[in-house]
């Protein structure tokens, strides 16, 4: 399927991606059942969907995990500084339902 659409498939090990803090640049170990590592991370998930970094910055927990998977994959062009700015200062968009209806219901 990937060849059909010109995509490259890369399988990625994801252990500890959701526990480590992307913004604090935590080291992310690889899980090994034969030799478990006792790792402490600088931030933590404070409630469903919300992660707090060591500096107290809040980030969506799924976005934190996804960013850490990007770090583990060593993707070309993965720029941590640029990504950090967009993760900590998200653009909030509020839709005016009345105006949307005017556009789609003439």
Entry keywords:
single chain, 106 residues, alpha+beta, 3-stranded antiparallel β-sheet, extended
Describe this structure in words.
- There is one protein chain.
- A hairpin with a 5-residue loop joins strand 2 (50-52) and strand 3 (58-60).
- The chain is α+β, with helices and mostly antiparallel strands and 106 residues long.
- The protein has helices spanning 2-5, 61-73, 80-88, 97-104, and strands spanning 44-47, 50-52, 58-60.
- The protein has one domain.
- It has a 3-stranded antiparallel sheet with strand order 1-2-3.
- It has 4 helices and 3 strands, in the order H-E-E-E-H-H-H.
Question: Quick summary of this structure?
Answer:
With 106 residues, this protein is of the alpha+beta class. Helices cover 32% and strands 9% of the residues.
SSE arrangement:
Blueprint: H1 2-5, E1 44-47, E2 50-52, E3 58-60, H2 61-73, H3 80-88, H4 97-104
Antiparallel strand pairs: 1-2, 2-3
């Amino acid at each position: 399927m990937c060849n059909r659409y010109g995509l490259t498939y890369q399988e990625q090990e994801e252990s500890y991606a959701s526990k480590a803090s992307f913004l604090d640049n935590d080291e992310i170990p690889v899980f090994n059942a034969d030799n478990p590592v006792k790792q402490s991370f600088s931030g933590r998930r404070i409630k469903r969907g919300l992660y707090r970094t060591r500096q107290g910055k809040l980030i969506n927990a799924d976005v934190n995990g996804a960013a850490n998977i990007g770090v583990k994959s060593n993707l070309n062009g993965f720029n941590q500084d640029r990504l950090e700015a967009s993760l900590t200062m998200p653009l909030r968009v509020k839709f005016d339902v009345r105006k949307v209806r005017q556009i789609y219901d003439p």
